[in-house]
Amino acid sequence: MKRLTRPRGNRWHALLPVVALLAVTSVSGAAHGSAVTEPLGVAGSARAAHTVPRSARVGALFSGDLEGGHFCTASVVRSGGRDLILTAAHCLSGDGDTDVVFAPGYRNGRAPYGLWRVTRTYVPRAWSDRSDEDSDFAFAVVASKGGRDLEDAVGANVLVTGRATGVSDVVVTGYPNVLEAPLSCTNRPTGQSRTQQRIDCPGFTDGTSGSPWVDREGEVVGVLGGFEQGGSTDDVSYSAVLGHAAALLYGEATGYSDSSGSSDPSGSS
User: Fold this and answer.
1) What is the dihedral of CA 201, 207, 212, 213, to 10 degrees?
2) 96: β partners
3) Global pTM?
4) Is 88 within 8 Å of 223 (Cβ atoms)?
5) Which residues pair with residue 170 across a beta bridge?
């Protein structure tokens, strides 16, 4: 599994996995199937500074400050509150996790866009109850800084659920625990099962759990985790297929209700 340990106060809790390279790009064969798309959030980020690179939407998770080392990856996703990040559930299923900070665009010991403190986490009940690999995704709300929201600082990608696996290549970006800069890989996902997808990307080891899978439209269609908590080898990674359960959890995290009127099976920590 792709796991690291991280400090929580004076204790250590096992968490997540990650890598050790700098930039890897590989392209493999096509996958097929029609896409049923459910974009969550609005396109565009007019209030974010135009000079901020899109790569700043991905960052590293730390416990408290930068001193303890990063243990997972997360990314900013569009929301009405402009304050939401996405990661793997096994990165945030601790005791509330409000000691966690997010450093978007982290590089070489610096957080160029600031540290954003997690104030609330949203983890699927299926993960909390039984570590269901098909529910290995989670959201977290971060506090504003000086009256400015996270999206104002770095922008955000749109989360999409219901997308068929392998419609296009995706870019996977994450923070291996042995590196102080992000690692990126471009490839096309394939189906591992009906509920899991996989991608071949060299060097994705401890620390990369929670890495977003972003398609050519800038939409997040996966998050590194799922089967074997992201994979037991460095060169193959996994994501749960983001479907109705992910849409429900996103709705809870953003304060929306399920339009179908069904009950929300997710739970928040």
Assistant:
1) 10
2) none
3) 0.80
4) yes
5) 187, 215
